[in-house]
Amino acid sequence: MTVTTRGRSAGLRRVPQYLALLAYVVFLAFPLLWLLSTALKTPREMALADPTWIPREPTLANFADAFGEQDLVGAATRSLVVALASSVITVVISLPAAYAMARYRGLVNRIAIGWVLVSQVFPFILIIIPLFMILRDMELVNTLPGLVVVHVTFTLPFALWMLQGYVRAVPAELEEAAAMDGAGRIRTIVGVVAPLLAPGVVATLLFAFISSWNEFLFALVILQDPDVMTLPLTLVRFTGPEGVARLGPLAAASLMATIPSLIFFAIIQRRLKSGLMAGAVKG
Amino acid sequence: MTATATRPAPPTPPARHARRRRFSRQTREMWVLMLPALVPVLLFSVGPLLYGIALAFTDARNTRNHETSFVGLENLGDLLTAEDFWSSFRIGMIWAVSVTGLQFLAALGLALLLNQDLRFRGVARVLAVVPWAMPPVVIGLMWKLVYHPDAGILNSVLGTHVNWLADFSLALPAIIVVGVWTGMPQTTVVLLAGLQNVPRELYEAVEVDGAGRWRKFWNITLPQLKPVIVAITSLDFVWNINQFGLVYVLTQGGPGGQTRLPMLFAYEEAFRYRFAGYASMLGLAMAVVVLAVLGLYLWRQMREAK
């Protein structure tokens, strides 16, 4: 009964809903489409008075030009090195701590969780000034290791939070069963916990990678020499007072800088849905 | 846990002794496991935080050769009498409150739509996550292209000739729109998850009474969603008041300081004019304000819930 009445009124009721959905799609999509459109336009077209949505003579030249501009390749390489180093270090040092947080509850655990929350609330500016002074005394300003240290420190709380959740999802009974079978502590962790934890570790690794790849404020403060700047900094320097001629390559470079993050979100959405953990727990 | 599982026998004196030894071994083990994470956090996070709070009460300069001395509350006095601080503070509050509020309303609407069985919602679902996946710097640059006075699409569509980001009265609203666009995805995803956790039986119960959609929304959806709403709006507020990169890329605080959020103000004081002590006090003041606003908000919500 309810199904039929609902079905009849649905047609009319749905019209405003579809209009609202369309409005959202337009709002969310139009800047993205404009970025794409700008990336495909020739410098000559950029200079024309009345810009159009669809490029009159679409070109991929901007993508090629972007590679030649302002050491973008160098900046992307440095960003890659920094992001790889900080994500691996973050996971390596936070994995044992996450394990401890998940398995031994108590005061330390509560302090750690408290710190995770506090680190989300505090204005970075309060930390970045003394941090800059400390790094300057350690001769780490204007160096990539300096930035790696900072990225590791500030990705750590959330990485810990993610990882301890994944560890908690691995039932302690599994470890106890392995221990009863005579497996040592190390063998229990390597043989039983690690395989189950792998998806969580991958997700955390990707999260840390993207945080570092996208990060701007710390890089701005720590890297002042153009020769060591990471991709976000170089992209910002791209926009000078030169007018519209270089907007095309800028748009192309921006699109390329987004690719790692898009891959991350594509992967993580599948990861979150995978029922690997559920299977392990039930079995 | 392990002790009871493997040794079901009642604890005889030697067993108890063994358990105590095991406990201390566990504690030691825990510290060893925590150590690698603890060292960088203490060295580069807790340490600087305490150092920063101390700096706020000194006349420290961000230069190599400067004798730093303790000045008490002088920085706070300077801050509270500085007109540009108050204007930055006001702009920061307008920005954080309006972005958080608009973000919430827009996200709630989108989450409600996505929770319906509509066609094409897959497209909207993917689009709703894209801003989340973009580097803030790229979002800033992209919107700069949209707002560009000559090559931007906005003027072309509206048939106007406005320099959006350089206009004294339009720059702040313009960046607020970007803020909403940027932060909407997280809020939508969280609210959608909350919506999907509302038990269906609750709706069925009032449907028997013939409740309309509005009544269902007000009497069931909203109260059920409230903890999620409180949590995500609090987080959004904190993230927004601490926003830096997006606005730095869009306007650098201009025109004439019309979009100079507190974090941009502090950044300029610390790294352009090198007043480390003064900027630290600014950071400290902002932390206190954020904690106070958050505390008041959460306290009121909790009292209402009782």
From TrEMBL, chain A:
It is found in: Cell membrane. Keywords: Cell membrane, Membrane, Sugar transport, Transmembrane, Transmembrane helix, Transport. Residues 76-268 form the ABC transmembrane type-1 domain. Coiled coil: none annotated. CDD domains: TM_PBP2. It is a multi-pass membrane protein. It holds the Pfam family BPD_transp_1. The chain crosses the membrane at residues 18-36, 80-100, 112-135, 147-167, 188-210, 247-268. It comes from the Bacteria. Belongs to the binding-protein-dependent transport system permease family. PANTHER family: INNER MEMBRANE ABC TRANSPORTER PERMEASE PROTEIN YCJP (PTHR32243:SF18), MALTOSE TRANSPORT SYSTEM PERMEASE-RELATED (PTHR32243). This is Multiple sugar transport system permease protein.
UniProtKB/TrEMBL annotation, chain B:
Keywords: Cell membrane, Membrane, Sugar transport, Transmembrane, Transmembrane helix, Transport. The keyword NAD does not apply. The keyword Membrane applies. The chain crosses the membrane at residues 30-57, 93-114, 126-148, 168-193, 228-251, 271-299. Pfam families: BPD_transp_1 (PF00528). It comes from the Bacteria. Residues 1-22 are annotated as: Disordered. Residues 89-297 form the ABC transmembrane type-1 domain. PANTHER family: ABC TRANSPORTER PERMEASE PROTEIN, LACTOSE TRANSPORT SYSTEM PERMEASE PROTEIN LACF. This is Multiple sugar transport system permease protein. It comes from Nonomuraea roseoviolacea subsp. carminata.
